[in-house]
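It would be a great kindness if you could assist me with a short task in structural biology. The matter concerns a single protein, recorded as an amino acid sequence and a row of backbone structure tokens. Kindly check, if you would, that the fold set down in the tokens agrees with what the sequence suggests. Thank you for your consideration; the sequence and its tokens are set out here:
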Amino acid sequence: MKYDRKRGCNNVPFGVNIFITEKCPLKCPMCFQPYSEKAELELNAVYAYLDELSSLGTKYVQFSGGEPLSYIQLPQVILYAKEKGLTTRISTSGVGLTNQMAEQLKKVGLDYCHLSLNGSKAHIHELVRSGFNETMRALDILSNTYIPVSINWVANHSNVLDLPNLISLAKSYNVKYINLLSNKKNNSGKMLFPLSCEDLYSLKQYWHEYADYLVIESCFYQLMNLIKGNKAKSIEQGCRAGRFYMAISARNEFSPCQHLSTSQKSVISIYEYWNNDAELISMRQMLKLNQQAGCQSSICKEYCTSCLNEMFDTNLESNAHNCL
């Protein structure tokens, strides 16, 4: 596996996010999935994707949803992926997790669990997500099964100042680290509690205080630019969707990322999509041009590659967007 600078992407996807189901018992206000969608991948289809990813040399696969814990065959697909040499992750709210299920996930070799938690207290978490008590119960269960856990935390105006409290909470449950994720639009096309400039600078300060415990999502370009500046390598700049990663929906459709408003594609194979999809190739060229031209804002114009959403007219509705 290597990065092809001429094409502006990895020669194969480094990681693939498979949305195995759209089913979920929750209705989180911030969710990008339509609540009415109930599609689910057939087991043999998942196996076929894992076969191809293994043959391509992809490093890891993440199972998402919807709620992946509601996919009855989840332990089976994790075991199959492990047998194919893939590193496995799930991204979950934790709702529905039982001690028995957690033990089964550990037994089949789940490598990592990314647990969605948006606040240290229910009243903060539930401004944008549902099921705080269930998520905390899952966190407690996972801490006793020794499956490595990280927390997916989406930054917004309502929870920024709570981040130190969440860090303390996470450490008490032996959480490995916290992923700082950028705020995105929900299924109604609205962004809840957009970040302000003050929020962004608060996050920068927290980063300096807790840098060994925080990981910044690659497409959280506002914070990444503010912290890394021109120290960032060119291939690290901006969103990595379509360059290092791709997504497969519960409807057998391919895209660079489920959050982008690019068209979903039903194609013959992952290889065919990654190498020959015209929209994906065009997107990579746009990124290369953007890197060469640079961002127009004052502090990062020589090295910024902004979020791909901007290229597809779904701009981040953040007050922090122009404060760089």
Remarks:
- The chain is about 30% helix and 15% strand.
- The chain has one domain: 3-322.
